[in-house]
Amino acid sequence: MGIDARNRAGTPRILVAEALTKVYVRGANEVRAVDGISLSVRAGEFMAIMGRSGSGKTTLLDLLGCLLRPSAGELAIDGRSVIGASDGELAAIRRERIGFVFQEFNLIPTLTAIENVMLPLRYGPRHPNGRQEAAALLDLVGLGSRAAHRPNELSGGEQQRVAIARALVNRPAVILADEPTGELDSTTSETLMGMLRGLNRDRGVTIIIVTHDAGIAGATDRVVRLSDGKVVADERSDGRGFERALYGEPSLNGDGLHNGTGGRVRVLLGDLLDRVRGR
Questions:
Q1: What is the separation of C-alpha 234 from the centre of its chain, rounded to a whole number of angstroms?
Q2: Which of 22, 147, 236, 245 is the least crowded, having the fewest Cβ atoms under 10 Å away?
Protein backbone atom coordinates (compact mmCIF):
# COMPACT_ATOMS: atom_id res chain seq x y z
CA MET A 1 0.00 0.00 0.00
CA GLY A 2 1.42 3.43 -0.93
CA ILE A 3 1.89 6.24 1.53
CA ASP A 4 -0.79 8.95 1.51
CA ALA A 5 0.98 12.22 0.69
CA ARG A 6 -1.50 14.32 2.70
CA ASN A 7 -2.44 14.34 6.33
CA ARG A 8 -5.95 14.80 7.65
CA ALA A 9 -5.71 18.59 7.41
CA GLY A 10 -4.84 18.32 3.72
CA THR A 11 -1.34 19.77 4.10
CA PRO A 12 1.13 18.11 1.73
CA ARG A 13 3.63 15.84 3.43
CA ILE A 14 7.07 16.26 1.89
CA LEU A 15 8.67 13.27 3.61
CA VAL A 16 6.98 10.19 5.07
CA ALA A 17 8.89 7.36 6.73
CA GLU A 18 7.23 4.21 8.06
CA ALA A 19 9.16 1.69 10.15
CA LEU A 20 12.38 2.94 8.52
CA THR A 21 15.33 0.74 9.51
CA LYS A 22 19.05 0.67 8.78
CA VAL A 23 21.07 -2.30 10.01
CA TYR A 24 24.83 -2.69 9.80
CA VAL A 25 26.42 -6.10 10.25
CA ARG A 26 29.74 -6.07 12.08
CA GLY A 27 31.10 -9.59 12.38
CA ALA A 28 28.56 -11.61 14.30
CA ASN A 29 26.77 -8.49 15.55
CA GLU A 30 24.01 -6.38 14.09
CA VAL A 31 23.89 -2.63 14.76
CA ARG A 32 20.45 -1.10 14.27
CA ALA A 33 21.54 2.47 13.55
CA VAL A 34 17.94 3.41 12.71
CA ASP A 35 15.40 1.12 14.31
CA GLY A 36 11.85 1.26 12.96
CA ILE A 37 11.37 5.04 12.81
CA SER A 38 8.07 6.41 11.57
CA LEU A 39 7.58 10.14 11.04
CA SER A 40 6.21 12.62 8.53
CA VAL A 41 7.31 16.12 7.64
CA ARG A 42 4.78 18.62 6.32
CA ALA A 43 5.51 21.29 3.73
CA GLY A 44 6.90 24.41 5.41
CA GLU A 45 8.07 22.76 8.63
CA PHE A 46 11.27 23.83 10.38
CA MET A 47 12.40 20.74 12.27
CA ALA A 48 15.41 19.50 14.21
CA ILE A 49 16.56 15.93 14.73
CA MET A 50 18.47 15.82 17.99
CA GLY A 51 20.41 13.18 19.87
CA ARG A 52 23.74 12.23 21.33
CA SER A 53 26.58 10.86 19.21
CA GLY A 54 25.59 7.37 18.06
CA SER A 55 21.86 8.01 18.45
CA GLY A 56 21.24 7.51 14.71
CA LYS A 57 20.44 11.11 13.75
CA THR A 58 22.95 11.42 10.89
CA THR A 59 22.03 7.97 9.55
CA LEU A 60 18.36 9.00 9.60
CA LEU A 61 19.17 12.21 7.72
CA ASP A 62 21.13 10.21 5.13
CA LEU A 63 18.16 7.88 4.69
CA LEU A 64 15.73 10.80 4.29
CA GLY A 65 18.12 12.34 1.76
CA CYS A 66 18.41 9.11 -0.28
CA LEU A 67 22.15 8.94 0.43
CA LEU A 68 21.62 5.52 2.05
CA ARG A 69 19.22 2.74 1.20
CA PRO A 70 17.18 1.42 4.15
CA SER A 71 17.38 -2.19 5.26
CA ALA A 72 13.61 -2.21 5.77
CA GLY A 73 10.64 0.10 5.94
CA GLU A 74 9.06 2.65 3.61
CA LEU A 75 10.12 6.13 2.55
CA ALA A 76 8.24 8.51 0.28
CA ILE A 77 9.23 11.95 -1.01
CA ASP A 78 6.46 14.14 -2.44
CA GLY A 79 4.16 11.13 -2.24
CA ARG A 80 6.45 8.93 -4.33
CA SER A 81 8.02 5.84 -2.78
CA VAL A 82 11.78 5.69 -3.22
CA ILE A 83 12.06 2.07 -2.13
CA GLY A 84 13.33 0.06 -5.05
CA ALA A 85 14.37 3.15 -7.03
CA SER A 86 17.44 2.73 -9.23
CA ASP A 87 20.70 4.54 -8.50
CA GLY A 88 19.93 6.93 -11.34
CA GLU A 89 16.45 7.65 -10.01
CA LEU A 90 17.80 8.31 -6.52
CA ALA A 91 20.42 10.66 -7.98
CA ALA A 92 17.67 12.59 -9.77
CA ILE A 93 15.65 12.86 -6.54
CA ARG A 94 18.69 14.15 -4.64
CA ARG A 95 19.50 16.60 -7.42
CA GLU A 96 16.01 17.97 -8.02
CA ARG A 97 14.04 17.57 -4.76
CA ILE A 98 16.57 17.77 -1.92
CA GLY A 99 19.03 20.49 -0.96
CA PHE A 100 21.95 19.49 1.26
CA VAL A 101 23.91 21.65 3.70
CA PHE A 102 26.90 20.03 5.42
CA GLN A 103 29.00 20.99 8.43
CA GLU A 104 32.16 21.22 6.26
CA PHE A 105 30.54 23.56 3.63
CA ASN A 106 31.94 21.46 0.70
CA LEU A 107 32.51 24.42 -1.60
CA ILE A 108 34.76 24.00 -4.66
CA PRO A 109 37.87 26.07 -3.81
CA THR A 110 38.62 27.12 -7.41
CA LEU A 111 35.10 28.47 -8.03
CA THR A 112 33.71 31.83 -6.97
CA ALA A 113 30.71 32.11 -4.67
CA ILE A 114 28.25 32.54 -7.53
CA GLU A 115 29.84 29.67 -9.47
CA ASN A 116 29.49 27.40 -6.42
CA VAL A 117 25.82 28.35 -6.13
CA MET A 118 25.30 27.60 -9.83
CA LEU A 119 27.04 24.21 -9.69
CA PRO A 120 23.86 22.10 -9.17
CA LEU A 121 22.34 23.73 -12.27
CA ARG A 122 24.85 21.88 -14.43
CA TYR A 123 23.30 18.55 -13.44
CA GLY A 124 19.66 19.38 -12.78
CA PRO A 125 16.77 20.79 -14.81
CA ARG A 126 17.75 23.54 -17.19
CA HIS A 127 17.47 27.09 -15.82
CA PRO A 128 17.76 29.70 -18.62
CA ASN A 129 18.29 32.44 -16.01
CA GLY A 130 20.55 30.38 -13.75
CA ARG A 131 23.14 33.07 -13.11
CA GLN A 132 20.46 35.64 -12.32
CA GLU A 133 18.77 33.20 -9.92
CA ALA A 134 22.10 32.42 -8.22
CA ALA A 135 22.82 36.14 -7.83
CA ALA A 136 19.36 36.67 -6.30
CA LEU A 137 20.01 33.86 -3.81
CA LEU A 138 23.36 35.36 -2.82
CA ASP A 139 21.52 38.63 -2.25
CA LEU A 140 18.97 36.74 -0.18
CA VAL A 141 21.66 35.36 2.13
CA GLY A 142 23.40 38.72 2.34
CA LEU A 143 26.37 37.98 0.07
CA GLY A 144 25.52 39.81 -3.12
CA SER A 145 28.71 41.87 -2.84
CA ARG A 146 30.84 38.74 -2.38
CA ALA A 147 29.69 36.88 -5.49
CA ALA A 148 33.12 37.02 -7.16
CA HIS A 149 35.05 35.85 -4.07
CA ARG A 150 36.46 32.33 -3.73
CA PRO A 151 35.96 30.27 -0.56
CA ASN A 152 39.39 31.13 0.88
CA GLU A 153 38.35 34.80 0.74
CA LEU A 154 35.19 34.17 2.78
CA SER A 155 34.68 33.62 6.50
CA GLY A 156 33.22 30.36 7.80
CA GLY A 157 29.81 31.93 8.20
CA GLU A 158 29.93 33.35 4.69
CA GLN A 159 30.93 29.97 3.26
CA GLN A 160 27.99 28.32 5.00
CA ARG A 161 25.64 30.96 3.57
CA VAL A 162 26.99 30.21 0.08
CA ALA A 163 26.28 26.54 0.78
CA ILE A 164 22.70 27.39 1.76
CA ALA A 165 22.20 29.43 -1.42
CA ARG A 166 23.58 26.48 -3.41
CA ALA A 167 21.12 24.14 -1.67
CA LEU A 168 18.23 26.42 -2.69
CA VAL A 169 19.13 26.98 -6.34
CA ASN A 170 17.21 23.96 -7.71
CA ARG A 171 14.12 24.91 -5.66
CA PRO A 172 14.11 21.68 -3.65
CA ALA A 173 11.16 20.32 -1.71
CA VAL A 174 13.27 20.16 1.47
CA ILE A 175 16.62 21.33 2.84
CA LEU A 176 18.56 18.77 4.91
CA ALA A 177 21.28 20.33 7.08
CA ASP A 178 23.77 18.19 9.03
CA GLU A 179 25.22 20.18 11.96
CA PRO A 180 25.25 23.40 9.87
CA THR A 181 26.61 25.48 12.77
CA GLY A 182 29.18 22.91 13.94
CA GLU A 183 32.17 24.88 12.61
CA LEU A 184 30.86 28.33 13.58
CA ASP A 185 31.15 30.50 16.69
CA SER A 186 28.03 31.33 18.70
CA THR A 187 27.46 34.79 17.16
CA THR A 188 27.78 33.49 13.59
CA SER A 189 25.60 30.51 14.51
CA GLU A 190 22.89 32.86 15.73
CA THR A 191 23.06 34.83 12.48
CA LEU A 192 22.82 31.62 10.44
CA MET A 193 19.88 30.29 12.44
CA GLY A 194 18.11 33.63 12.07
CA MET A 195 18.61 33.42 8.33
CA LEU A 196 17.27 29.85 8.15
CA ARG A 197 14.29 30.92 10.23
CA GLY A 198 13.65 33.76 7.79
CA LEU A 199 13.88 31.45 4.78
CA ASN A 200 11.40 29.12 6.44
CA ARG A 201 8.90 31.80 7.42
CA ASP A 202 9.19 34.12 4.42
CA ARG A 203 9.68 31.61 1.60
CA GLY A 204 8.07 28.52 3.11
CA VAL A 205 11.26 26.48 2.75
CA THR A 206 10.99 23.10 4.51
CA ILE A 207 14.12 22.61 6.62
CA ILE A 208 15.37 19.65 8.68
CA ILE A 209 18.45 20.18 10.83
CA VAL A 210 20.49 17.51 12.59
CA THR A 211 22.15 18.80 15.76
CA HIS A 212 23.34 17.76 19.20
CA ASP A 213 22.90 21.36 20.46
CA ALA A 214 19.71 22.02 22.43
CA GLY A 215 19.90 25.74 21.65
CA ILE A 216 20.02 25.15 17.91
CA ALA A 217 17.20 22.62 18.12
CA GLY A 218 15.17 25.10 20.18
CA ALA A 219 15.33 27.62 17.32
CA THR A 220 13.12 25.32 15.22
CA ASP A 221 9.38 24.63 15.49
CA ARG A 222 9.63 20.90 16.08
CA VAL A 223 12.26 18.73 17.77
CA VAL A 224 12.47 14.97 17.16
CA ARG A 225 14.77 13.31 19.73
CA LEU A 226 16.52 10.03 19.01
CA SER A 227 18.17 7.47 21.25
CA ASP A 228 19.58 4.13 20.11
CA GLY A 229 18.06 4.57 16.67
CA LYS A 230 14.52 5.17 17.94
CA VAL A 231 12.33 8.26 18.32
CA VAL A 232 11.95 8.93 22.04
CA ALA A 233 10.23 12.33 21.78
CA ASP A 234 8.55 14.47 19.13
CA GLU A 235 7.83 17.93 20.51
CA ARG A 236 6.74 21.36 19.32
CA SER A 237 8.89 24.40 20.13
CA ASP A 238 8.32 28.17 20.04
CA GLY A 239 11.51 28.65 17.99
CA ARG A 240 13.27 30.88 20.53
CA GLY A 241 15.55 28.35 22.18
CA PHE A 242 18.79 29.61 20.63
CA GLU A 243 18.20 33.18 21.79
CA ARG A 244 17.49 31.92 25.29
CA ALA A 245 20.62 29.76 25.29
CA LEU A 246 22.77 32.79 24.45
CA TYR A 247 21.04 35.67 26.23
CA GLY A 248 18.26 34.37 28.45
CA GLU A 249 14.72 35.62 27.87
CA PRO A 250 14.98 38.32 25.15
CA SER A 251 13.23 41.69 25.22
CA LEU A 252 11.29 43.26 22.38
CA ASN A 253 12.40 46.36 20.52
CA GLY A 254 10.12 49.08 19.20
CA ASP A 255 9.30 47.10 16.08
CA GLY A 256 8.05 44.12 18.06
CA LEU A 257 11.13 42.09 17.12
CA HIS A 258 13.51 40.44 19.50
CA ASN A 259 16.71 42.39 20.02
CA GLY A 260 19.89 40.81 18.69
CA THR A 261 21.14 39.45 15.42
CA GLY A 262 18.15 37.20 14.75
CA GLY A 263 15.76 40.17 14.70
CA ARG A 264 18.05 42.20 12.46
CA VAL A 265 18.45 39.29 10.05
CA ARG A 266 14.67 38.97 9.78
CA VAL A 267 14.36 42.64 8.81
CA LEU A 268 17.18 42.32 6.27
CA LEU A 269 15.58 39.21 4.78
CA GLY A 270 12.33 41.12 4.32
CA ASP A 271 14.18 43.88 2.47
CA LEU A 272 16.02 41.37 0.29
CA LEU A 273 12.85 39.46 -0.54
CA ASP A 274 11.19 42.69 -1.65
CA ARG A 275 14.14 43.38 -3.93
CA VAL A 276 14.02 39.86 -5.43
CA ARG A 277 10.28 40.26 -6.04
CA GLY A 278 10.87 43.64 -7.68
CA ARG A 279 8.92 45.71 -5.16
A1: 18
A2: 236
Whether the pLDDT of residue 41 is over 50: the answer is: yes
Quote the pLDDT of residue 189: 85
Work out the average pLDDT over 136-150.
93
Distance separating alpha carbons of residues 185 and 242, to the nearest angstrom: 13
Share of the chain above pLDDT 90, in %: 54
Can you give the pLDDT at residue 255? 40
Measured in whole angstroms, the distance separating CA 51 from the mean position of its chain's CA atoms is 17
pLDDT for 39 beyond 90:
yes
pLDDT band at 116 (very low <50, low <70, confident <90, very high): very high
The top-scoring range by mean pLDDT among 91-95, 107-111, 186-190, 209-213 is 107-111
**Residues shown for the chain:** 279
Collect all residues with Cβ–Cβ distance below 8 Å to 49 and sequence separation of at least 6.
57, 60, 61, 208, 209, 210, 211, 224, 226
Beta bridge partners of 15: 41, 77
Specify whether the CB–CB gap between 239 and 46 falls below 8 A: yes
Residue 263 carries which side chain, given as an amino acid letter? G
